[in-house]
Amino acid sequence: MSKKILILPGDGIGPEIVAEAVKVLTCLRDDFGLALELETALVGGAAYDASSHPLPAATLDLARAADAVLLGAVGGPKWEPLPIAVRPEKGLLGLRAALGLFANLRPAILYPQLAAASTLRAEVVAGLDLMIVRELTGGIYFGQPRGVETLASGERRGINTLVYTESEIERICRVAFDIAMRRGRRLCSVDKANVLECTELWREVATRVGRDYPEVTLTHLYVDNAAMQLVRAPKQFDVMVTTNMFGDILSDCAAMLTGSIGMLPSASLDASARGMYEPIHGSAPDIAGRGVANPLATILSVAMMLRYSLGAPELATRIEAAVGAVLDQGLRTADIAAAGTEQVGTAAMGDAILAALRTEAA
Ligand code: NAD
User: Fold this and answer.
1) Which residues are catalytic?
2) Which fold, 1-102+293-362?
3) Is 92 in the pocket of ligand 1 (CB under 6 A)?
4) Is there a shared CATH topology between the 1-102+293-362 domain and the 106-269 domain?
5) Domain 106-269's class?
6) Beta carbons of 129 and 186 less than 8 angstroms apart
């Protein structure tokens, strides 16, 4: 049975980079026999312009019916004056909430060819291949009570609440253990169990779930130490799992270890591995419409989609190999350009990936 993919190009460079990813999906369908149905819809500022809402009901219906969603990026200065409730970002948050996407997968991969792009020494980061699994729909970002109240004294007090149920912890840990089983079988659970009771529970549940995965070596780190270790020796990690807020911070830190925002994909999954796939970067309004954006993060998001939602890990590996081959050829978009490489635009980079894929197919 063919899989339904909803394509949401979004705003800014979104349509440019998604066009290259669609070329890859079309190639997988036509040359590799992958049964796919592609549908395109509006989200973000583009949707607001067309229908006064960043997440129209028609888009949400299509997303609910799809096996996976590929999103470019949303937002831009044009929509910043709008009320928060209809800003482009609300379209994205609305999709995550409506689809129940509780598991955010953020790989930090540094292709050896791009080691010079990192602010860390090449030997510390070259070949880095780390996966951070962040809980996305619970924790302090959603806990009640929350808000700012005025005390009898007239002083104001701000409140947020860190809250996790055992089942919320268990389901994100299971996602992380399953991913570790497909990778290097090492999982580091990150908490602050020495100070926060809620994450003491986190540690206890992670340890309990770990008994179902005897092949995975489970370790625990306090978040402050995890941040230090990420910068000191990031290659010690295979998979990390953590709370919403810790994951927010650590995954951005890990992304920056690679130094190339245009290279990093991400996935957000529900309980049955239906997911939304998107590059980690935004809509880059400063370069939109110029045909210079790097499409590789979006193309690598397609690889994640194949691995985690479409059950085609061998095709995911082929895409990743094609990206490596194109980097080996010395082709670079402006954001990753370096001396001795050939600078190409968005479409030429997409075409080079297609050529590398077709070479593998032949
Ligand atoms: P950004 O990620 O869009 O851009 C940061 C810098 O990285 C810019 O200089 C940009 O040119 C560059 N860059 C980003 N992606 C690139 C690519 N593929 N190729 C080459 N260079 C690339 O972050 P920002 O400037 O803070 O945000 C711009 C807009 O994007 C804002 O409206 C923001 O709200 C939105 N945003 C959306 C998402 C999303 O859709 N998931 C995420 C972050 C930001």
Assistant:
1) 141, 192, 224, 248, 252
2) Isopropylmalate Dehydrogenase (3.40.718)
3) yes
4) yes
5) alpha beta
6) no
